[in-house]
Design goal:
Oligomer: single chain
Number of helices: 27
CATH class of one domain: Mainly Alpha
Largest sheet: 5 strands, mixed
Low-confidence stretches: 1-5
Strand order of the largest sheet: 3-4-5-9-6
CATH superfamily of one domain: Neurolysin, domain 3
Shape: globular
Structural class: alpha+beta
Radius of gyration: 25 Å
Strand content: 5-15%
Distance between the termini: 66 Å
CATH architecture of one domain: Orthogonal Bundle
C-alpha cells in the first residue's frame, strides 16, 4: 500500500471517524482505492471460502465492515455537511460503489457456502443470532439477484445503478428546493402574532443571508421552509395571505423547474416494479415485505383501515371545532377554513382551551436541562449512566456533542454523538439515528458501539440556550430510543447487533416507546426547568400538556394513514400504463383519508424523501405497525405502576434485556413476546391516541 493511501483518512477502516482531517478531496481517491482492495479480497474469499462460520461469515463481515466504515462516513457527511463539492465527489464514486455492492450481493460462491453452512453439522451448535445472520444472508443474496443470469442479471444491475442515482438526485432536489424559497418580512404588520423565539431565529437567518444589521426587534426577518421556521410561522402568523404563500411553497417543493422530482418519481416506481418482477415478485410491495414483520399487503391494509375508521369521525369533529372557534372569534375565513388555517386555529384553541402554547413552554425546555432529565430517566429504568465525553472524539461541527454510556458497574458500554441544531444551508431536515460503529467481538475483545443522533431544533440565539418546543423534546426522546437499541445490544455478532437485522417495521419500537415518557409526570418535571430561574414546570402546565396530548389526534392519525396508504398503493397497485396517474392516485387516497382535500397543485410526493430517497419504500406503514408494539410495551410499565420505582426498574430491566439487548438476533415477534409474555394488541395504541376510553 502506498504512502498516499495510508494518509487518506477514509482508509483507516476502524475506530472513530477522524472528522477533523477528512476533506472532500479524500473521497474519490479513498473510495476508489478501497473498492479496488475489497474487490481483490472478495475474489480471494470466493476462491477459498469454506462453509463454516470462521471460513465464511467472519471474513465476509470484515469486507462489509470496511466498506461500511468508509462509505458510512461519506453518507453521514452528505446528511450533515452537504455541499456542491461533496455531492460531486459522492456522485462520482457512487456508480462504482453500487457495482461492488451488487457484485458482493450476487456472489454465487458465497451464496452456495451459506446454504451449505445451513445444511451442515455446525448449524446445530449455532446461537440464535448466528442462525438469523445465515438465514438473512441467504435471503438477501436472493433479493440481490444472485439467481439471475444473462440479460436478466444485466438488467437488474442496471436498475440498481439507476435507482441509486435517482434517489440521490431526489434527496438533493428536496434540500435545494427547501433552501431556495424564503420570505423576507420588514414591517410590524408582516410579523403580527409571531413569537419572540421565531423572530430571533428569523433575524439570525436574515443575518446569515447577508443582512448584517438584522435584529429580533427591528428586522428584517427571513422565514424559510426549514421546519423550525415554517412550523411556528404557520401556527402563529396573523397574516393569512403569508401563511397561504408559505404553505403553497411547502407543498410544491421540488415540483418545478430544474428541481422537479416528478419525472424521478415515475422512473423510481417503474424501476422498482421491474426489479420486483425480475426477482419473481408481482409488486415491489411484496418484495419489500420479504424483509418485514407484516405478512401481507392485506394485513397492512387491515391495520390502516382500522386506524382510518377509528380516527375519521374524530378528525371531522376536529375540523368543525376549528371552524366554530374561528367563527366565534369573528374570523372572516371561518366558513372556508383550509390548509393554511388549521395549524393557526388549532394553536389558538390549544392556548384558550388548554391554556397552552409552545412559546410558553419553550423556556422550560432548554436543551442542557432536557438532556439531564432524559439521562436521569435512562438511569432510573435501564440502570445506565450517560456522561459527557466532549473532546474525546473528532466532530464535524462545533455544536456536536459526544457522550459515553456506562453500565451499572461504571464500565463503558457505548458512545454517541449528538448533533442537535438546524443548519438549513448544509444539513437535511428531519431527525435520525445512524450507526457509526457496530458492536462486535474481535479477537476476544468486544468492540463497543457508537451512534449518531441528529436533530433539527432551533439553535441557541442571542445568548440564550436552545429552547425546545415540546415536539422537539419528543423528537429527541424518539431518536434516543433508536440509539438505545443500537448502544445497549448484548449481541456480539455484528450482523445481528443493535438495529442490524431487525425487520424494518419493528425498528421504530424503542423510539416510539421512549416518546411516551414525555408525558410521565416525574420524568417531565425532572427535565422541565426554566432556563433563567431554574423553577420546575408548574403542575398546571404539566396537566395541560397531558390534557392536550390527544388534541387533533384524529387529524394526525389520518395524515399518517394517508402517507402510508399512498406509499403502499404506489408500490403495489399502481401501474404506469394503468390509466391512472401518480397525482390521481395521491388524490384518490387523500379523498378517502383526509377531511380537507389537497390543493390541485399539491405535490407533497415530490418531497416525500422517506419513500423515494430513504428506507421506507413500501414501508411507511411501519410507523403504525411499530406503534402497536411500542404502545403495548409502554402499557407494561403502566400496568406495573408508573409511580412504583421498584416495579419500573424491574420492567425497565426486562425491556433492556429483551427489546434493547437482543437486537436482530431473534424475530421481533419472539423478542416482543419475551418482554410482554404475549402477542401485541392494538388497544394500547388506540387508548394512548385517545380513540378509546382509558
Amino acid at each position: 500500500m502506498t504512502a498516499t493511501i495510508v494518509q487518506n483518512p477514509l482508509l483507516i477502516g476502524a475506530g472513530l471517524p477522524p472528522f477533523h482531517s477528512i476533506e472532500t478531496a479524500h473521497i474519490v481517491p479513498g473510495i476508489t482505492a478501497l473498492l479496488d482492495n475489497l474487490a481483490a479480497d472478495l475474489e480471494a474469499l470466493e476462491s477459498t471460502v469454506l462453509p463454516t462460520w470462521a471460513g465464511l461469515v467472519e471474513p465476509l463481515t470484515q469486507i462489509e465492515e470496511r466498506l461500511g466504515w468508509s462509505w458510512g462516513i461519506v453518507g453521514h457527511l452528505m446528511g450533515v455537511k452537504n455541499s456542491p463539492e461533496l455531492r460531486a465527489a459522492y456522485e462520482e464514486v457512487q456508480p462504482a460503489l453500487v457495482q461492488f455492492a451488487t457484485r458482493l450481493g450476487q456472489s454465487k460462491p458465497l451464496y452456495e457456502a451459506f446454504k451449505a453452512l445451513r445444511a451442515s453439522a455446525e448449524w446445530d451448535s449455532f446461537a440464535p443470532a448466528q442462525r438469523r445472520i445465515v438465514e438473512s444472508s441467504i435471503r438477501e443474496a436472493e433479493l440481490s439477484g444472485v439467481g439471475l443470469e444473462g440479460a436478466e442479471k444485466e438488467r437488474f444491475n442496471q436498475i440498481q445503478q439507476a435507482l441509486a442515482e435517482l434517489t440521490t438526485k431526489f434527496a438533493n432536489n428536496v434540500l435545494d428546493a427547501t433552501k431556495a424559497f424564503s420570505l423576507t418580512l420588514t414591517t410590524a404588520e408582516d410579523i403580527a402574532g409571531l413569537p419572540p423565539s421565531l423572530l430571533a431565529l428569523a433575524a439570525q437567518a436574515a443575518r446569515d443571508a447577508g443582512n448584517a444589521d438584522a435584529t429580533q426587534a427591528a428586522g428584517p426577518w427571513r422565514i424559510t421552509l426549514d421546519y423550525p421556521s415554517y412550523g411556528p410561522f404557520m401556527q402563529h402568523s396573523h397574516r393569512r395571505d403569508l401563511r397561504e404563500k408559505l404553505y403553497r411553497a411547502f407543498v410544491t417543493r421540488a415540483s418545478e423547474g430544474d428541481l422537479d422530482n416528478s419525472a424521478s418519481i415515475d422512473k423510481i416506481l417503474a424501476l422498482r416494479h421491474e426489479m420486483a418482477n425480475l426477482l419473481g415478485y408481482d409488486t415491489y410491495a411484496n418484495l419489500s415485505l420479504a424483509r418485514k414483520m407484516a405478512p401481507t399487503v392485506e394485513a397492512i391494509d387491515k391495520l390502516m383501515d382500522e386506524l382510518r375508521v377509528a380516527s375519521y369521525d374524530t378528525a371531522v369533529k376536529e375540523l368543525e371545532e376549528l371552524q366554530a372557534f374561528a367563527n366565534a372569534k369573528g374570523a372572516p375565513e371561518a366558513d372556508s377554513l383550509t390548509h393554511w388555517d388549521t395549524a393557526f386555529w388549532a394553536e389558538r384553541i390549544r392556548e384558550e382551551k388548554y391554556g397552552l402554547n409552545d412559546e410558553e413552554l419553550r423556556p422550560y425546555f432548554p436543551l442542557p436541562q432536557v438532556l439531564d432529565g432524559l439521562f436521569a430517566l435512562a438511569h432510573r429504568i435501564f440502570d445506565i449512566t450517560i456522561a459527557p465525553a466532549d473532546g474525546e472524539a473528532p466532530v464535524w461541527h462545533p455544536d456536536v456533542r459526544y457522550f459515553q454510556v456506562l453500565n451499572g458497574s461504571g464500565d463503558p458500554m457505548a458512545h454517541f454523538y449528538l448533533d442537535p441544531y438546524s443548519r438549513p444551508a448544509e444539513k437535511r431536515g428531519g431527525a435520525w439515528m445512524d450507526d457509526c460503529i457496530n458492536r462486535g467481538k474481535l479477537n476476544g475483545q468486544v468492540r463497543l458501539p457508537v451512534a449518531y443522533l441528529v436533530c433539527n431544533q432551533s439553535p441557541p440565539v442571542d445568548g440564550k440556550p436552545s429552547l425546545m418546543t415540546f415536539r422537539d423534546v419528543e423528537t429527541l426522546f424518539h431518536e434516543f430510543g433508536h440509539g438505545l437499541q443500537h448502544m445497549l445490544t448484548q449481541v456480539d455478532y455484528t450482523g445481528a447487533a443493535g438495529i442490524n437485522n431487525v425487520e424494518w417495521d419493528a425498528v421504530e419500537l424503542p423510539s416510539q416507546f421512549m416518546e411516551n415518557w414525555c408525558y410521565h409526570r416525574e420524568t417531565l418535571l425532572t427535565l422541565a426547568r426554566h432556563y433563567q430561574t431554574g423553577e420546575p414546570l408548574p403542575e398546571d402546565l404539566y396537566q395541560k400538556i397531558v390534557a392536550a396530548r390527544t388534541f387533533m389526534t384524529g387529524s394526525a392519525i389520518l395524515r399518517q394513514v394517508r402517507f402510508g396508504w399512498t406509499d403502499i398503493e404506489l408500490h403495489h397497485r399502481y401501474r404506469p400504463d394503468g390509466g391512472e396517474t401518480i397525482a390521481e392516485v395521491n388524490r384518490r387516497i387523500a379523498e378517502q383519508s383526509s377531511v380537507l382535500n389537497p390543493l390541485p397543485e399539491d405535490a407533497f410526493l415530490c418531497a416525500f424523501t422517506h419513500i423515494f430517497a430513504g428506507g421506507y419504500a413500501a414501508g411507511y406503514y411501519s410507523y403504525f405497525w411499530a406503534e402497536v408494539l411500542s404502545a403495548d410495551a409502554f402499557a407494561a410499565f403502566e400496568e406495573a405502576g408508573l409511580d412504583d420505582e421498584t416495579a419500573l426498574a424491574e420492567t425497565g430491566h426486562r425491556f433492556r434485556d429483551t427489546v434493547l439487548a437482543l437486537g436482530g438476533s431473534r424475530h421481533p415477534m419472539d423478542v416482543f413476546k419475551a418482554f410482554r409474555g404475549r402477542k401485541p394488541s392494538t388497544q394500547a395504541l388506540l387508548r394512548h391516541r385517545g380513540l378509546v376510553a382509558a
